[in-house]
Write a structure and sequence with these properties.
about 750 residues, alpha+beta, Jelly Rolls, 5-stranded antiparallel beta sheet, 4-stranded antiparallel beta sheet, 26 helices, about 40% helix, about 15% strand
Length: about 750
């Protein structure tokens, strides 16, 4: 027998032996224990929490049932199951099930390599839209702030499956495109001209009203008067508009104060002082009339618009870049369109994040030509073409070509560039990255990683703090948080802004300085300005500027000492050990507790409620209920460890008249006291935190929820991270080099 054939035979035999041993362990040792201790609650169609253990099979543990078995493992590790009022397994029996889960069921089978998975076509979310417009045109407008809120999937607004396009968003896209186009290209039409408003007045008698104004640029102007009248007698109020005693316009003013009419006067003005005179010429009063006895003229406002037909003195920088080759004004529209076609090509390619096709270029050129044929100026025709480009699916959507049925394909250079830029910057590729894609320089791991490392040093990588960390850590919840001002009068908008900035700056620091992600748990420093330092009791910090300072590790350190986290996990009137404990479990360890049973009562807030005493005492009474105890014995001890922080994150040693008790005991018997003790205990779970962080960042980067087959990538990235000091760039490099980031599979069977 050849050596290769012998090796294959040996591998097959070993695999069969391993599978039989695993099945034997499950059937002979694990399943009987589950049946004895778990099936009473977790069997059949009505199994609690949807975990029907009798239906699970060892063969599916690594694939379709992986998520369910992972939940089982977390509950067993936390000693949350079986519940306290049920028969308990011996330590040896419990460890046997845990060992099978860790060593067999949940150990991913990576023998076939990592699978890339599929990503649904997704639109730009609001932050991505604003950033893309900013970087494409160099303008400081944020039109997407008026879009409907983005839906969230798996904790993030980058998930293709939930980023739908409702009808109202289509309308906002059209409005936004016009706004952006006008901000990027200066125009000479009246809608783009500068303007200022002079006050009006009520005119109850025949006479004149004068308003003076100054013109700084000579040219053509429009005087627009908004007015309405009080009808009396046979005539409507009559108004005359004149400027410097010339170019008078007469107008009848309708009697409709709910819909004022507009009256315009167009004229040329020189630099200097000018006077608008409005004359009311037909006052009328009939004391005998029972109604409508007095005719009056009301001037709402007077707008001076112009100069018209002239570009502003300060044109946008993009305007000058775009018209680097002027379009000849006197040329035939078709000749102008030929020049325009050359100018729009690089802009459309950047906007579409790939080379614009000839058909797309032809469509944009036809928009420009049609606008010129209708008499629009070159600038206005350009604005209209840019607006058409901005409502194109090629701009709004991040689409990737599908893989052939049953196959996997490599993403092309432009697709990889877009994944990189929207992952790290929440924006489109810059010139360097786009040119690399054009040259085909994003086809190797080294090339992709090199670009990612460069991009992490760019200021635009701050988007990772605001968009990734902001969602992962729940900082966006600060927008809805308002501690009770009667109890916490010091918590104002300045402090709210500061606590958010502290956490974002810590994350930015880790990214920029390429530090260990474990510092999120144990950093012995933070970033404060005077307002936040005063809140924390940190001396010798003055001014609004944030700076890095050392902290007293008995009181602060890592995220658990940040007022942003402590505030967003509190109630308006008090702390919430439950929310804080739940945040630690699901945010830092991706181990959310089970959902509470239906009809569980809320914790009583008032002294005359069913539960009385300190907050800890009331919660202990609350979880005395067996229905509450299962979840609370996981969350509450962690939350109690943070009780030295009030609902705004300020340090305290008293809760009302009682001393704060910040001690805790986990279900497995581990004890700790205060935030420092809690941090030490959590440090023992660095492996779990590392894996959680990688799962969250990978989800954000890919724009999809993780599947069972992604466990191989997570484990590989975690091993690389641990071996290289858990530096942020290492994790990013491993993510962007992975098949999940650089490939796509069809998800279909071969026909």
């Amino acid at each position: 027998m050849s050596q290769s054939a012998s090796s294959v035979t040996t591998m097959v035999v070993l695999a069969l032996v391993s599978a039989n041993a695993s099945a034997s362990t499950f059937e002979s040792r694990v399943r009987p224990l589950l049946q004895r201790y778990c099936f009473d609650c977790h069997e059949g169609d009505r199994a609690e929490s949807g975990i029907s253990l009798d239906a699970y099979r060892e063969a599916d543990a690594k694939t379709s049932d992986r998520a369910a078995w992972l939940k089982v493992l977390r509950q067993l590790q936390g000693r949350a199951m079986p519940p306290a009022d049920a028969e308990q397994p011996s330590p040896e029996e419990l460890q046997a099930v845990i060992a099978w889960l860790e060593d067999e069921a949940l150990k991913p089978d990576c023998s076939g390599g990592e699978r890339p998975g599929r990503v649904t076509v997704r639109r730009l979310n609001r932050e991505e839209y604003n950033n893309t417009v900013r970087d494409l045109f160099g303008i400081a407008v944020r039109p997407a702030d008026d879009f409907p809120s983005d839906d969230i999937g798996f904790g993030f607004d980058t998930i293709g499956d939930v980023l739908r396009i409702p009808p109202v968003l289509l309308e906002r896209y059209i409005d936004a495109a016009e706004t952006v186009a006008r901000a990027a290209i200066a125009s000479t039409d009246i809608d783009a001209a500068a303007s200022f408003v002079l006050p009006g007045a009520a005119m109850g008698r025949t006479g004149d009203m004068d308003r003076e104004f100054t013109v700084e640029r000579a040219g053509d102007y429009v005087i627009r008067v908004t007015a309405w009248g009080d009808q009396a007698g046979p005539e409507p109020p009559r108004m005359t508009i004149a400027v410097d005693g010339r170019r008078a316009r007469k107008a009848d003013v309708p009697n409709d104060r709910n819909s004022p009419s507009e009256h315009e006067l167009r004229l040329s003005l020189k630099n200097g002082q000018h006077t608008i005179r409005i004359t009311f010429s037909n006052d009328y009063y009939d004391p005998k009339a029972t109604q409508k006895k007095d005719r009056n003229l009301h001037i709402g406002s007077i707008s001076v618009i112009g100069p018209i037909g002239m570009l502003p003195a300060d044109v946008p920088a993009f305007h000058n870049r775009f018209f680097s080759q002027p379009i000849p004004v006197g040329a035939d529209p078709h000749e102008q369109t030929d020049v325009f076609r050359k100018l729009i090509r690089p802009v459309a390619s950047r906007a579409f994040r790939r080379r614009v096709t000839e058909d797309e270029l032809e469509g944009l050129s036809l928009v420009f030509l049609a606008a010129r044929d209708r008499g629009e100026t070159i600038e206005r025709a350009t604005q209209m073409t840019l607006a058409a480009m901005l409502v194109s699916p090629s701009f709004l959507l991040r689409a990737e070509a599908a893989a052939p049925p049953g196959r996997i394909r490599d993403l092309d250079d432009f697709e990889v560039a877009s994944r990189l830029s929207y992952f790290l910057w929440s924006s489109l590729p810059d010139d360097d990255l786009f040119r690399a894609a054009v040259r085909g320089e994003l086809r190797t791991t080294e090339q992709v990683v090199r670009q990612a490392r460069r991009m992490l040093l760019d200021p635009k990588a701050a988007a990772l703090a605001t968009n990734f960390a902001g969602q992962w850590l729940g900082l966006r919840g600060l927008d809805e948080v308002r501690p009770d001002r009667s109890l916490f009068p010091h918590f104002d908008d300045d402090l709210l802004k500061a606590v958010r900035q502290e956490t974002e700056m810590l994350f930015e620091h880790l990214v920029r300085e390429d530090r260990s992600i474990l510092e999120l748990l144990n950093a012995e420093y933070t970033f404060v300005n005077e307002r936040l330092a005063r809140h924390y009791g940190i001396p010798n910090v003055t001014g609004d500027e944030f700076r890095k300072v050392a902290v007293d590790t008995n009181q602060r350190g890592g995220l658990l000492g940040h007022a942003s986290i402590l505030t967003v996990t509190s109630n308006p009137t008090r702390t919430s050990p439950v929310k804080r404990g739940k945040w630690i479990l699901e945010t830092l360890f991706n181990a959310p507790p089970p959902e509470p049973p239906a009809n569980v009562p809320e914790l009583a807030e008032e002294a005359n409620g069913q539960l009385t005493g300190t907050l800890r005492q009331r919660m202990e009474q609350h979880r005395a209920d067996a229905a509450c105890a299962t979840c609370h014995k996981l969350m509450d001890p962690l939350g109690f460890g943070l009780e030295n922080y009030d609902a705004t994150g300020a340090w305290r040693v008293h809760d009302g008249r009682a001393d704060v008790d910040a001690s805790g005991e986990l279900p497995d018997g581990q004890e700790f006291t205060g935030p420092a003790g809690l941090r030490s205990l959590l440090a023992e779970r660095n492996d779990d935190f590392r894996r959680c962080f990688i799962e969250k960042l990978l989800t954000y980067a890919l724009g999809r929820g993780l599947e069972y087959h992604d466990a191989c990538a997570v484990e590989r990235i975690a091993a690389a991270s641990a071996a290289r000091d858990d530096r942020f760039s290492v994790i990013v490099a491993e993510i962007v080099a992975s098949p999940a980031f650089r490939q796509i599979e069809s998800g279909e069977q071969t026909p």
